[in-house]
Amino acid sequence: MEKHVQIFLNKISYFAITIATLNLIIIFIFQTPPETCINPKLNPNHKPHPKSSCDAAHRPLTTVEKKNGRLWSTNTWRKSVNSFSAIFHDLETLNHISNRSHALILSAGGGQAVMSLNEIGLREITGVELVDSPPLVSRADPHNLPFFDGVFDLGFTANLDQALFPSRYVRELERTVKNGGVIVVCVEECGNDGVIEVLKLFRRSIFSQARNVTLMRSKMTMIVTKRTE
Ligand SMILES: *[C@@H]1O[C@H](CO)[C@@H](O)[C@H](O)[C@H]1NC(C)=O
Ligand SMILES: *[C@@H]1O[C@H](CO)[C@@H](O)[C@H](O)[C@H]1NC(C)=O
């Protein structure tokens, strides 16, 4: 390449770099700070003039409410809740639970059982699951519950079958449910032999009754035990 061409090219690239740098400086100086947290152009659902500046806590909650509103109004959800209500009504009739019972639901899923107990009139219901579903279900490992001993009157689960360590799972239920309380587990439908197998997991409870039920369109066997020392 000839020398004067080389010099010319160098000049051009210096010129380009200078322009680019100037551009950056100009953008940096004259860019106006955003008026809201979220650029309205990026989010079509964004309300243009929030009252408080950056209320981060408010926004996700509204989204959760909307999402729950949609979920809770579906037929599937309603039917699931009703299937739990049938069981809990029976337990109420048998005096196993009352509206003063403090209930623990393990592996509560989306919270169908929690909602059902709430509709029956219980005011203290704790639903836990590995993945939380606010506001009905909080996050906790059923094998290692973050609760003191003997704080619940009712322990309930419809997911003992899926437990990774069933005996540990039941041990935690027995630990957190108080002496005299009730533990109810629903497992895949089974006969006497199956019920006896499940009861072997219990160390501090006595058998009360077993019955076939339908929960969330599955045929299951409900086993009721009474917590004793
Ligand atoms: C709880 O149940 C009792 C007896 O069924 C009833 O009299 C009472 O009003 C109920 N309490 C609440 C808070 O629902
Ligand atoms: C539940 O149903 C199965 C199949 O029909 C039956 O074998 C079993 O004895 C029933 N269990 C109870 C507790 O009624």
Order of strands across the biggest sheet?
3-2-1-4-5-7-6
Shape: globular
What amount of the residues lies in strands?
A: 15-25%
Please give the CATH class of the largest domain. Answer: Alpha Beta
Task: Output the CATH topology of the largest domain.
Answer: Rossmann fold
Average pLDDT score: 83
Structure, described:
- This protein has helices spanning 3-30, 58-72, 75-93, 112-120, 166-176, 192-199; strands at 102-106, 124-129, 137-139, 152-157, 177-188, 205-215, 218-227.
- The chain is 39% helix and 23% strand.
- It folds into 2 domains: 1-55, no CATH class; 76-227, Vaccinia Virus protein VP39 (Rossmann fold), CATH 3.40.50.
- Helix 3 crosses helix 4.
- It is globular.
- Mean pLDDT is 83; it is low at 14-19, 24-30 and 32-57.
- The protein starts with a helix and ends with a strand.
- It is of the alpha/beta class and 229 residues long.
- It has a 7-stranded mixed sheet with strand order 3-2-1-4-5-7-6.
- The structure holds 2-acetamido-2-deoxy-beta-D-glucopyranose (2 copies).
- One 2-acetamido-2-deoxy-beta-D-glucopyranose (NAG) binds at residues 99, 121.
- Residues 99, 121 line the site of one 2-acetamido-2-deoxy-beta-D-glucopyranose.
Topology (SSEs and partners):
Elements: H1 3-30, H2 58-72, H3 75-93, E1 102-106, H4 112-120, E2 124-129, E3 137-139, E4 152-157, H5 166-176, E5 177-188, H6 192-199, E6 205-215, E7 218-227
Helix pairs in contact: 3-4
Bound molecules: 2-acetamido-2-deoxy-beta-D-glucopyranose (NAG) (2 copies).
Quick tags:
229 residues; alpha/beta; Rossmann fold; 2 domains; seven-stranded mixed sheet; 39% helix; 23% strand; globular; binds 2-acetamido-2-deoxy-beta-D-glucopyranose; transmembrane helix; transmembrane; membrane; S-adenosylmethionine-dependent methyltransferase activity
